[in-house]
Structures are given as C-alpha cells and as structure tokens.
Design brief:
heterodimer; A: Rossmann fold; five-stranded parallel beta sheet; B: about 270 residues; five-stranded mixed beta sheet; two-stranded antiparallel ribbon; 9 strands; about 20% strand; disordered C terminus
C-alpha cells in the first residue's frame, strides 16, 4: 500500500475543480489528480490506482454517473463520490443505488463535510483492499493445504 | 403523442393561457439560472472557508512571534494556496457579473421598450441565459452584418427564447443548432435550424394553433409558437417554418428593415387579446 493517498477530482468547471484542489492542498497531504475531462480521467485511471474519486454530475463529455460506473470497472476498490449541483435527489439516489456510489454531495458543498467523506472513503478503500488481499492470501493458503492433504493421502496410499 | 389543451373560450381565456405559457418559460429560466449561479457560488463558498482556514494557520504560526525555517516553508505553501484561491474568486465573481449583465440585456430592464436594437445582442443574451440548457448541443452562430432596427427588443428576445427552447427540446444530445442571420432585399432574416426530430407534415399546419403541442398536456404548453408568431407579425414580419421529419426543422423570423414603415412608435404591443 502506498503511503500517500491519491484523490481524483473530475469537474468540467475549472472554477470548482480549483476550489476543491485548493482546499485539499491546504488542509491535507493527499496527492491530488484533477481533470476537467472525464475521458482523460478514465485514461489516467487505467494507468494508476486512486483511493477516492470525486466527480461532478453535469459534464458535456460524459455525465458523472456514467463516468463513475466506468471508473468502477477499471478500479473497483476506489471509493466513488458524486458532486451534484442538481437539486434532483431522486436521480441522485437512483444513481447511488444503480452505480453503487458511496456518497453524493450537493453544491454548494461544505469543505468540512467533504473532508470527512473523503477521509471515510479512503478508509473504506483501504479496508476493501486489505480484505481483497486477505481473501487472496486465504485462497492461496487453502490451495496449499489442499495440495499438502493430497500429497499426504498419496504418501499413505 | 399529440395533445391539445382544452380549446380556449374567447380572447380572455387565451390571454390567460398566454400568461401561463410565459410563467412556464420563466420558471424554466429561473431553474436554469439557479443552476448557473450555483457553480460560482459553490466555489466562492468553499474558498471563503479555505481562506479562513489559511488565516488561522498563519495566525497559529505567528502566535509565538518566531518563524522557524520549517514554518517558513509552510507559510510559503499557504501563500501559494491563497493566491490560487483568490484567482478562482476572480473567475467566480466575473461569472456572476456576466450572468447579471446577460439577464439585464435579455430583459432590457434599463432601456426603452421601443428601441433601435442590434438583434445579434438579443440573440447572444438569450443564448447566454439558455447556456445551461444547451450544454449537450453544438451551437453554431452564422452571423452576417445586420443593421440596427426599430423594434421591441424584449419581445423579440422572447421569440428567440421560444424558438431556441423548441429547437433544444426537439434535438437529442450531441445535435446541433445553427443560427443564421443576414439581410435579403428589404428584410432581415434570422434562421434557427436544428438537427432534431423534425415536424410531421400533418402537424406543420397546426403548430401555430393555440394549445397545439406534442410535449404533453401541461398548463401553458402549446402557446410558444403562437405568441412568437404574433410578436413577429406585430413587427410587420413573418415567422416561417420548414421541416423534414427525422432531419430537423428551420424556423425563419423575417422582419422588414423598416418595421414601423417609417412611422416610429407604431409597432403595437404584442398582446393576444388586444
């Protein structure tokens, strides 16, 4: 596991992107990757893992929900957060359920809340990653046990 | 699906429906503006908080009146962050100011109702306040030089808004709306062409009828084109439509270069029941 957590920010509005980045750089030591283009963000995702993705909803290239759904396919462990200016909670809730989002934040957002959600998101990703590693280790151990048992049986036959 | 709102009984009922139609458009406009304002507001709100935090950090460093080399590095980092934040604030304030400017231009609040106007200005301010609705559409402006004309600009802006909203609603995401302007002989032409679903031939003759709509049976629907045509006709012009189903539609506003016929101040106020 890397020592520095990586946060990906995606919003076609440079204004919002810079404000988010400015706040996180001031208050945290996360490595920040910011993109105004969701397609460029997807490309970057296939090159390196991130812990948390925060994406805007209304983007001309690709809407935030579709983007986060595609991001999930590439990086299933990353925690996905939707930042929406739209006051249509119905759509947002549906998206959370359908695309398996972790959280949705409304604009204008509270920095403190955002920081908390990101911190929890990092923890969640770390837990998932650890769980995944443990499951792999368990499977590996299980396979070894099976082979030992097989060899033991072979030895006594 | 084609619907017809209940047939209006006389001029009064029609006037009532026209008011409803205007309110419906206004409601949509306000919702769009709320969203447009939310972006700079979100940035300003966050930055305000960040600046307060930056100040607190600086105050904490200065509290003992001694700045260590490590702290100096931290101060430099904070100053860089503040610099970036202030630049975003400039952008946000400029965005909000230009929104208010566009609204003023569109509503012509501080100008005469009957005015010598540049129609490109009207088209641009209408497009600006519709920007939120038009994000997924390519908008092409093919403007040729237009002389200023004596008109009621606020009413013509309402026509542009109706036609652009119709075009947007008919055009799927990724489509195109082209606004072509120019003069032909003694008339000004403004053509708004979309790459949308088009209008079925049997509907073409009815689209200017009061209450005709294919967008469901909501109050105030189906009057936008009627209002638009009346405004254009009161300027001595014509509103024309051409469409190939499946390929889109073109609405043409044709206005005489001298709509008042040389007699300034004679363009009647466009009211359906006047």
């Amino acid at each position: 596991m890397s020592t520095q957590n990586t946060i990906m920010l995606v919003d076609d509005e440079l204004m919002v992107l810079t404000a988010l980045r400015g706040f996180l750089e001031l208050e945290t030591s996360y490595r920040i990757l910011s993109f105004t283009s969701p397609l460029a963000a997807l490309e970057a995702l296939s090159a390196e893992p991130v812990d948390v993705i925060v994406a805007d909803f209304m983007m001309p290239e690709l809407d935030g929900i579709s983007f986060l759904r595609q991001a999930r396919a590439t990086r299933p462990m990353a925690t996905r957060i939707l930042l929406t200016g739209y006051a249509d909670k119905e759509n947002a809730i549906r998206a959370i359920n359908e695309a398996g989002l972790y959280y949705y934040l409304e604009k204008p957002w509270s920095n403190e809340h955002l920081q908390l959600v990101i911190r929890n998101g990092i923890e969640r990703s770390a837990l998932f990653t650890e769980l995944d590693m443990r499951v792999s280790a368990l499977e590996h151990a299980n396979r070894e046990l099976y082979q030992i048992r097989h060899r033991l049986i072979q030895a006594f036959l | 699906m084609t619907d017809r709102t209940p047939a209006p009984e006389g001029a009064e009922a029609l006037a009532e429906q026209v008011t409803q139609a205007r309110l419906a458009t206004l409601g949509m406009l306000v919702a769009g503006l709320a969203h447009e304002l939310n972006t700079p507001l979100g940035a300003l709100n966050s930055n305000h908080d960040s600046l307060r935090r930056a100040l607190e950090k600086l105050q904490a460093i200065l509290a003992d009146e001694v700045v260590s080399p490590d702290e100096l590095e931290e101060v430099r980092r904070i100053v860089r962050a503040v610099d970036g934040i202030l630049r975003v604030n400039d952008m946000a304030v400029e965005r909000m100011s230009s929104l208010v400017r566009d609204l003023r231009n569109f509503g012509r609040v501080d100008r005469a109702e009957l005015d010598l106007a540049d129609l490109h200005e009207g088209l641009d301010s209408t497009l600006a306040i519709l920007a939120h609705q038009l994000t997924a559409i390519e908008v092409v402006r093919e403007y040729r030089p237009l002389p200023r004309i004596e008109c009621r600009p606020q009413q013509l802006n309402q026509v542009f808004m109706n036609l652009l909203l119709n075009a947007r609603q008919a055009t799927p995401d990724g489509g195109r709306i082209t606004i072509h302007t120019g003069t032909t002989g003694d008339a000004i032409e403004i053509r708004i062409t979309d790459t949308g679903t088009g209008i079925r031939p049997e509907h073409l003759a009815r689209i200017f009828d009061p209450g005709f709509t294919t967008k469901g049976n909501r109050v105030g629907m189906g009057l936008g084109l009627l209002i638009s045509r009346q405004i254009v006709e009161r300027h001595g012009g014509r509103l024309l439509v051409r469409s190939t189903p499946g390929q889109g539609a073109t609405f043409t506003v044709r206005l005489p270069l001298d709509p008042a016929g040389g007699r300034t101040g004679t363009i009647p106020d466009a009211e359906v029941n006047s």
